[in-house]
Amino acid sequence: MNGASMNGAQALVSTLTGLGVDICFANPGTSEMHFLAALDNPAMKSVLCLFEGVATGAADGWYRMTDRPASTLLHLGPGLANGLANIHNARRASSGMVNVVGEHSTKHLQYDAPLTSDIEGLARPLSHWVRRVDSARSIAWDATAAVQAASSHPGQIATLILPGDASWQDAGEPLPVPPVVRTRRTPDLARVEHIAQVLKSGEPALLILANKATRGRALDLAGSVAAATGVRLASQFFTARCERGAGRVPLERIPYSVAPALAYLKDFKHIITVETTEPVAFFSYPDQPSLLKGPDAAVHVLAERDEDSELALTMLLDALGARHAPRMQPRIETACPTGALGPISIAHALAHAIPENAIIVDESLTTGRETMGYTMGARPHDMINNMGGSIGYSPPVATGAALACPDRRVFCMTGDGSAMYTIQSLWTQARESLGITTIIFANNSYAILKAEYANMRAGTPGERALAMIELDRPRIDWQAMAKSMGVPSCAVDTVEDLTQAMLRSAREAGPYLIEVRL
Amino acid sequence: MNGASMNGAQALVSTLTGLGVDICFANPGTSEMHFLAALDNPAMKSVLCLFEGVATGAADGWYRMTDRPASTLLHLGPGLANGLANIHNARRASSGMVNVVGEHSTKHLQYDAPLTSDIEGLARPLSHWVRRVDSARSIAWDATAAVQAASSHPGQIATLILPGDASWQDAGEPLPVPPVVRTRRTPDLARVEHIAQVLKSGEPALLILANKATRGRALDLAGSVAAATGVRLASQFFTARCERGAGRVPLERIPYSVAPALAYLKDFKHIITVETTEPVAFFSYPDQPSLLKGPDAAVHVLAERDEDSELALTMLLDALGARHAPRMQPRIETACPTGALGPISIAHALAHAIPENAIIVDESLTTGRETMGYTMGARPHDMINNMGGSIGYSPPVATGAALACPDRRVFCMTGDGSAMYTIQSLWTQARESLGITTIIFANNSYAILKAEYANMRAGTPGERALAMIELDRPRIDWQAMAKSMGVPSCAVDTVEDLTQAMLRSAREAGPYLIEVRL
Questions:
Q1: Which of B1, B45, B104, B117 to mutate to test the interface with A (most CBs of A within 10 A)?
Q2: Residues β-bridged to residue B445
Q3: Are B271 and B181 in contact, with CB atoms under 8 Å apart?
Q4: Are the beta carbons of A458 and B36 separated by less than 8 Å?
Q5: Which of A54, A84, A130 to mutate to probe the B interface, most B CBs <10 Å?
Q6: Most B-contacting residue of A159, A421, A424 (CB-CB within 10 A), to test interface
Q7: Contact assignment for A453 to B33 by CB distance below 8 Å
Q8: Which of A148, A324, B80, B210 is at 20 to 30 A from A392, Cα to Cα?
Q9: In Å, what is the CA distance from B443 to each residue of A427, A483, B342, B423?
Q10: Around Cβ B461, how many Cβ atoms within 10 Å?
């Protein structure tokens, strides 16, 4: 491409792809027509999404599997707003992304046309980096700064506001742009040596791993620390991506609910954190604590969120003078389960059925939340959780993960209530023929809220209140829903049928939906 | 109810209903369990929505038909974020609403739990009024201030952030709260008298009506002004709610596209505005103007947005010394159309089929945008447009309008691309058995963007760019979509079948969906 002939939108797309941002989850509008034209650049893969929350969630899923930011294309302030809930989830998962938000051309803003809004104001609460493009000539610099921010450790949300005139004007001669630098801060040696002394003391200690430390070499190193010192290894209840199953270093999981989390943590005298903080309750409840550790426990930071945890764990092993091999999770063959559908039998079905290298995107809430331990000895796989708590993250994240890993089957496990927030994802999955099995746990209610009602001591729900957490009038017909967007499906009433459907779905080239009738 | 025993949530609901805010479009979560319990108050109608954009859009529809704010219940920052696009549309329509946004309890915020976000920051760009409840004891005052703001003229977006502890703590003795005052500013007499002189000059003039002036007595008064002076009457292309059809004062419609709008406006020497501004292009295009009036036209403000336009028009008639009866639109019988489906035949079908007092919520874009003139002589009806330009407004607004007017049939006319943003509305429509006919114009593309691509001079779209505005892989199966959420449906290929289906649907008690295969 002759750089001198580029307009701003072409220069933007060219800069993004040159820096490795080579996918764009897009929901375009009138003000983005030049950007759309620029997407004809064959170095950029464009994926159409029918709702912006699908685009931003897919960018999150892409980052989780590649550690590289994707871009999104959103239509002015309201388009950004539709993407914000999954931007919140991505931010909490430390996923980097570059959001390109179309905007009126600069001279048009003064007239307060209908779609005008304070885009910076909408972007800032959930973005780490926000910039408005001033001119087509500086757009390559702006795009580079956005990619630099998104590629930080931890990943950041970068939002670039693109006025129409900056898209269509001549970008001039291409300027050399600085390279994107990927660094992680080095942990402090004295702090690491102190933690080595703590571990040598033999007092009960828990090492909590998060973000990039729950996989790859960092996870193996943590396993070596545990083998050398007896420290127990855990993740928070929710993890951005965890490599688990047979042949991986197993992590315990701190329980979700306050009472079991308190019971789990109460005897640890030391909590050692890696890319995370001490455990905190997800919600606050009347007369329940927010901090979950035992009353005498000390918290030690082995690696801050922006530090290199692999290096921190290596330094810790050096300080310990230890070279123990980690203890790996053995394979546990789980027989094809029989009997009634329930959280445990469903976990057994999953353990039996998931193929090697599957990616599980979990939003199963009441159905799967407490029983994932049963899949510890399954074939090796990746597990992805919702880090931000905004419901409807899993179908979009599964979409992005499947695009990132076309050779791996994705299992998206979701409650029926959750799935409805971003159900438009199914259409993109069909369009791109993505290898995703969506498993809908259809209990026809916001079941989690029935428990939370009691946890909150809100009394016994009256008829009107109860009606607000029941989804049974009407029941959602999930097979019709799947069909409407071109996704084949089945419904199952038994765990045998669920297991067989999962096995069968893993041989599909494209998406498949299983309604689990609870 | 014994006021002294109320908790904060009960005091909030009791205050809202006491001030006439007696419907709540809700998508609750854990932090809102006490508010949910308080919704057992029989004075409050609670409507469950499966996505927050449905809740805020329904509140908009409710306001448009009642001129009273509804409340919404949204789950923390991300729940608010999901509702923002339709809050933007409501704000641009001058619809008041009271958003109650659940929040962690105050002491929990310091721990930065996963769902924590800057709710004020997310609320401010699109809210006129934002407040965080400080204590259960002041909640009645906070709710009153919120309702006061929402009930202003023009209506305002009021967002009340409700921490968990403020919900569950004792609200104490009920305090007397000040009454909600509904006022409209009085127009300046000198300004009105000047406009009377302008109209007496005989120079070509256009009176543009908006918001509350496109219906009721204000519309009749404008008709009298036109009859007395020959001034032409128009609305902007988009109107919050317009009473039109046989027996109403007819308004011309300023065209949407820039070239025909310039042509329409070029000969007017005077533009007189009522609750609106001079006409502005919706988008900006290369080398096209943003302001649409003729080069020599003067703009005169008869009523500012916050002024009483009925009073302004009365004062104008007094200044003119005129008492002319308005000229009303005669009934035009439109025969049942035959032949191919197209914008004009579809408009004829609508003109033939809509029953008396129907409410048309229009988001038909390319299919219906240019042809609504053909329905001028239909039975009297209300027409509602999207004022903010954020797509996916119509199924939620139809939902709220139907709840507001249970005796009137609502026709929701929407493009297929538009409908997909907030398709979860169908479920609430089925649940509440709402009299809504959703008409999906299924052209399997973002057809509007094909035209805009050319308008933007973005050249001829390449294969990749074109693929991003085609929705035909896969085609959405709209009958399956309707079935999935319990809505009966049919598909039509001819205008005869469309007309018959519309007539039939108007006799349904509940919702119905018609897929128009274009």
A1: B117
A2: B470
A3: no
A4: yes
A5: A84
A6: A421
A7: yes
A8: A148
A9: 16, 18, 11, 17
A10: 21
CB A378 within 8 A of CB A40: no
Tell me which amino acid residue A242 is. C
Give domain A3-168's CATH superfamily.
Answer: Thiamin diphosphate (ThDP)-binding fold, Pyr/PP domains (3.40.50.970)
Prediction pTM value: 0.97
Check A115 against B282: CB less than 8 A apart.
Answer: yes
- Tracing tokens 């201030």 back to the chain, one arrives at B145
Which of A104, A417, A468 has the CB atom closest to B39's CB atom?
Answer: A468
Distance (Å, whole) CA A73 – CA A418: 24
Quick one: angle between helices A52-66 and A394-404, nearest 10?
50
Q: What is the pLDDT along chain B (518 residues), one digit of tens a residue?
A: 444 589 999 999 999 999 999 999 999 998 899 999 999 999 999 999 999 999 999 999 999 999 999 999 999 999 999 999 999 999 999 999 999 999 999 999 999 999 999 999 999 999 999 999 999 999 999 999 999 999 999 999 999 999 999 999 999 987 788 889 888 999 999 999 999 999 999 999 999 999 999 999 999 999 999 999 999 999 999 999 999 999 999 999 999 999 999 999 999 999 999 999 999 999 999 989 999 999 999 999 999 999 999 999 999 999 999 889 999 999 999 999 998 999 999 999 999 999 999 999 999 877 777 788 899 999 999 999 999 999 999 999 999 999 999 999 999 999 999 999 999 999 999 999 999 999 999 988 888 888 888 888 888 888 888 888 888 899 999 999 999 999 999 999 999 999 999 999 999 999 999 999 99
> Does 3.40.50.1220 match the CATH number of domain B189-320?
yes
CATH of B343-517, one of 3.40.50.970, 3.30.420.40, 1.10.10.10, 3.90.180.10: 3.40.50.970
Residue B506 CA, chain-centre distance (Å), reads 22
A372's tokens = 């994932």
| Among the partner residues A113, A124, A283, nearest to B280 by beta-carbon distance | A113
Chain B closest-CA separation from residue A240 CA (Å): 12
Q: Which residues of B are less than 8 Å from A480 in CB distance?
A: 480-481, 483-484
Q: Which structure tokens are listed for B44? A: 């409050």
φ and ψ at residue A512, rounded to 5 degrees: -150, 145
Query: CB atoms < 10 A from the CB of B262, how many?
Result: 18
Please give, rounded to a whole number of angstroms, the shortest distance from the CA of B5 to a CA of chain A.
14
Helix (H, G, I), strand (E, B), or coil: what is residue A239?
Answer: coil
Residue A517 CA to residue B129 CA, distance in Å, equals: 44
Asked if A3-168 and A189-320 have one fold, the answer is yes
> What residue of A is the nearest CA neighbor of B387?
A114
Query: CB distance A28–B449 less than 8 Å?
Result: yes
User: Rounded to 5 degrees, what are φ and ψ at B502?
Assistant: -65, -45
Give me the total of CB pairs closer than 8 Å, taking one residue from chain A and one from chain B. Answer: 322
Partners of B107 on chain A (C-beta within 8 Å) are 284, 290
Q: Which residue of A has its CA nearest to B110?
A: A290
* 3-class SS of residue B252: strand
Alpha carbon distance A4, A140 (integer Å):
13
Domain coordinates in residue numbering, chain B: 3-168, 189-320, 343-517
ipTM > 0.95, yes or no: yes
A interface test, pick of B124, B390, B463, B481 with most A CB neighbours within 10 Å:
B390
Contact A91, A46 (CB under 8 A): no
Complete DSSP assignment for B78-121: HHHHHHHHHHHHHHHTT--EEEEEEE--GGGGGG--TT---HHH
